[in-house]
Structure formats: structure tokens, C-alpha cells
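Section 5: illustrative case.
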């Protein structure tokens, strides 16, 4: 007894549209037709559909199923590839869960970059924005340096964060001098921060980062940063 396309779809737990698609891409052989031109499916077609469904459940793409043929070795290699992909996906999911847990533990906001949740309260919105932009430009070592710096060095933050845009020169210089001392310590602990690892587009990346800083901080704070970097580099050159 032969089955119609609709009945075959019911038995295999699929749809008529899917069966037609499998025919079109060569996954399922066309059946013989009756005198009335109706398709007549047999047990091999049902078994093939169930096999395809099983492989799809394992995560195998249709293109890979089509290329399997009858070689057991090919099937084994495909399974190993799938297993490696699943392992990578699981590892990434675990990393994401750990990151989400950290954000929940510290009640962090959405603009807190990965790895900064524990120090988020000490970062102003401008600080968080600069860190997010910097993370896009730095390599992994540079990002790790940023995380450690944010956790270990907040000595000049209060004075810098509360500096008004119309601060006088003396106040700007005083805050810059304190920040320069912090910068020297940071450069000693993280030598790579003297010349941040910005990759092949270093020049344009520095320009982009500078533009972001000038838009995120007020004029007095921007001047503090400029002076602090000059003072830190001069002291390092003399030392």
C-alpha cells in the first residue's frame, strides 16, 4: 500500500511543503506515480524522512545531510564537527551567564561594559561611555588593562568628576598634577597603556577616542586630561 504526500507528512511529523522542499534539493527521492499521476510513497521514503528529522534534531544543516551519502566515516566527521560547535556554544553560554550574574549581583545598568560591573558605582556615565568605546578599539590585553585600572585606581576620580566647566587654571593644574601621579603608577603597572594596543588603525582610533572624550567631558576636565598626560610623560622621560 502506498501513501499520499499528505499521509506521509503526517506519519513523519512534517509538512507537505517540507517534503516538496526535500525533493527540490535532492534530499528525498521522487516516488513513483500512479496512473492518476498521484505520488505513491513507500516505507523507504518514510524512513528517510525520519532519518533527516533525527539529523536535524542533532543540529545538522540540510547541506551537510545532503553530502553524507553512505559513508560512515563522513558521518562520524560531521558529528565531531557538530560536537565541537556545540562545545564552543556551551562555553560561550556559560560566559554570558557569568556576565549576567555579575550584572545582577551589582545591580548594574545596561551601559556597563563586560568585566566592569563590580566598579560600576565608581564610574560616571562619561567614564562608562569612554570605557565602552575604548573596549571596541583595544585588543584583549588592552581591555584587561582597562578592567584592572578601573578596579585599582580611583584616587583622583572625585576631584576630576566634580570639576566644574569654568574651573580656574590653578584648580585645573592641581587636579592634573594628582592625576599625573596616578597615570605614572598605571604606566608602571601596565606598560602597554603608554602606547595603547589599538591595532592597525591606531592613528584613526586615537582620533576617534579623543573626539569622544572631548564630547563626554566638560572643557575643564578635558584640559585636566591633556595636562595630566603631558606631566606624566615628562616625569617618565626625566626619570
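Designed sequence:
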Amino acid at each position: 500500500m502506498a501513501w499520499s504526500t499528505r499521509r506521509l507528512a503526517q506519519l513523519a511529523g512534517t509538512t507537505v511543503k517540507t517534503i516538496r522542499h526535500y525533493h527540490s534539493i535532492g534530499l528525498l527521492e521522487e516516488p513513483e506515480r500512479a496512473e492518476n499521476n498521484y505520488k505513491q510513497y513507500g516505507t523507504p521514503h518514510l524512513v528517510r524522512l525520519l532519518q533527516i528529522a533525527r539529523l536535524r534534531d542533532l543540529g545538522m544543516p540540510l547541506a551537510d545531510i545532503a553530502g553524507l551519502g553512505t559513508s560512515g566515516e563522513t558521518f562520524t566527521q560531521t558529528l565531531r564537527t557538530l560536537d565541537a560547535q556545540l562545545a564552543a556554544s556551551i562555553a560561550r553560554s556559560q560566559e554570558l551567564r557569568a556576565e549576567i550574574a555579575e550584572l545582577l549581583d551589582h545591580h548594574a545598568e545596561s551601559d556597563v561594559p563586560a568585566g566592569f560591573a563590580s566598579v560600576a558605582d565608581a564610574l560616571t556615565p562619561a567614564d562608562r561611555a569612554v570605557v565602552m568605546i575604548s573596549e571596541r578599539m583595544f585588543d584583549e590585553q588592552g581591555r584587561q588593562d582597562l578592567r584592572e585600572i578601573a578596579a585599582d585606581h580611583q584616587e583622583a576620580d572625585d576631584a576630576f568628576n566634580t570639576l566644574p566647566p569654568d574651573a580656574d587654571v590653578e584648580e585645573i593644574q592641581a587636579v592634573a598634577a594628582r592625576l599625573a601621579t596616578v597615570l605614572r603608577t598605571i604606566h608602571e603597572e601596565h606598560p602597554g597603556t603608554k602606547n595603547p594596543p589599538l591595532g592597525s588603525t591606531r592613528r584613526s582610533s586615537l582620533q576617534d577616542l579623543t573626539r569622544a572624550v572631548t564630547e563626554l567631558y566638560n572643557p575643564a576636565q578635558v584640559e585636566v586630561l591633556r595636562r595630566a598626560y603631558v606631566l606624566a610623560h615628562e616625569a617618565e622621560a626625566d626619570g
